[in-house]
Predict the 3D structure of the following.
Amino acid sequence: MKIKGKNIGLIFILGLLFMHFYAPRFITEIQNPIIKTIRNLKGVKQNTELTAVFPEGKLWTYKSEDHLKLNVFYNPTALDSVKGHIILVHGIRGDMNFLEPNIRYFSSLGYTTYTVDLRAHGKSAGQYCTFGVKEKQDLSNLIDYLVEVEHLDLENLGIWAQSLGGAVALQSLAVDKRIQWGIVESTFSEFNTVVNDYFQLYLGFSNVNFSNYLVKRAGSISSFNPDEAKPIKACRKITQPVLMIHGTEDDRINISNGKRNFQSLASKNKSFFEVKGANHVNVWQVGNAHLKNEINVFLKMVGEEITEKQ
């Protein structure tokens, strides 16, 4: 009985140590070996490299404020004239290669695209995701690079982003007005809230105090303040035109997140499009022609608005 009691005590202590030191890494450590192993066992699809799909495109690198080497893929428009430019941002544990259909679509409309690998994702350097806190500065550094090094005229520059990318986009729109409009798809309103929701979705239970503790520890390990990862607060500073898109059956990030963000936008030129029956990952497939028409109308509107201001 004494030996059994000691073993139970040891297991309890080891469990506490695991929860304090390692479990928070599952939240922010993108290159976590355990999660990578699980994804490999599940056979997560590896998309074709963009350089093989778009031979006219170019892969560039630029530096973050903390000296990380980050990747961006440039692809020209398929039309004879350029209508504008779009930064494309992927979701959590994705990379630029997942956005091949988006590049192809916006190129067909006359837009050049700059598709990023967020820090710690794809082939960009870094270990941790900070859910927009540092990534918003990374996008500002990207714009600096495009203007100062590549000498590009980024007239009519917008951003399209999904999930994690959407959270980054909202925080970027709030602080960098060189981004003149945004299309934001299926993103969360507050980092700590969505972590608690994920606990409920994947583990079948949730405890706000416990998930908040893990979020705080994750921020400490990853060197960022989780309280700053709140897109809903950024929305109050966004005055640029914004189109928000969300699936009504999104079980990962409930549509209520998108609606709260939308209501908080300071912009007078904003619209919200619900994709009936869509979940977190099939918005474009379910929305299809109706979604594309909504995007086309929005792009035409912001293009005309920018032209009138010139």
